[in-house]
Design goal:
The chain is built from six helices and eleven strands. It is α+β, with helices and mostly antiparallel strands and about 260 residues long. Strands 1-2-3-4-11-5-10-9-8-7-6 form an eleven-stranded mixed sheet. Bound molecules: coenzyme A (COA). Coenzyme A binds next to strand 9, helix 5 and helix 6.
Amino acid sequence: MDRWTVTDGTDTASLSGDPERWLVELNISEPAAPGDPSDERGTNDDRGRRLLEAATQAVVIEGGGRLEYWIERVDERSDEVPTRAGFVPYRDLLRLRRQLPALPTDLVVRAFRPEDAEAFIECNNKAFDWHPEQGDMTPEDLAAKQAESWYDPEGFLILEETDDDGNESIIGFCWTKVHTDEKPALGEIYAIAVDPEHHGRGLGRELSLAGLAYLASQGLRQAILYVESDNKPARKMYGALGFDREFTSRAYQRIVR
Ligand SMILES: CC(C)(COP(=O)(O)OP(=O)(O)OC[C@H]1O[C@@H](n2cnc3c(N)ncnc32)[C@H](O)[C@@H]1OP(=O)(O)O)[C@@H](O)C(=O)NCCC(=O)NCCS
């Protein structure tokens, strides 16, 4: 929910969140022609900087905290405005893409069942304990995602293993998502992980292929995914699977006292 909206009548900065993570989003309407100094509202850079400074003031009034700002599809100039407004880049998220279909796989997976929730969350939280958003999933977080319109258990692939005593446990998953609103429709590897005790056995690669095969079976011809720039194991795996970088989105932050 927006806590503040800062506007000068034309442009808007919307602030949401709490002191742990304030998020500001800018909406510059009717942007000036690039570099046009004759626009009385200033250049787009001036307008962006002013909005970020206004959002920072709003956070001061709220008692301070960590303020985050994202730019989608960064280019070589993207850092200028946030840097001039006192923000520093701290996180790059890459979007990768490849064509479908990919290679087939023999890995046996099955669709998510409601009774998997607890074991899935345990596997997820172990594998993503280092991740800023994905690592402390609660049953409520999972239920909220499963209530979204795109959710389909058939595309939420679960990998189980039976131990010597006959006990089954979830040791990995590949959760896919179909973007029907995109033209053409896009498939996504939305979340994928292998229990750390089972890393390095080739399961991540085969789970990826299982997810891609599922997306291809839905008639999709393009697959995307998002990966942190510093996630070396995942980047190496995706590179070997034929994914290429499409664009980078960058998060900036400013600690406001
Ligand atoms: C990424 C992840 C799913 C890989 O699973 P895995 O079962 O260990 O991977 P695999 O054994 O199938 O390895 C596949 C390829 O990934 C790469 N890879 C895997 N682990 C690696 C590591 N620690 N360092 C470098 N490359 C690695 C290698 O290229 C490997 O192929 P190779 O063995 O032929 O060289 C796993 O590390 C994981 O669950 N990580 C945490 C969750 C995560 O980051 N998910 C992706 C978010 S986008």
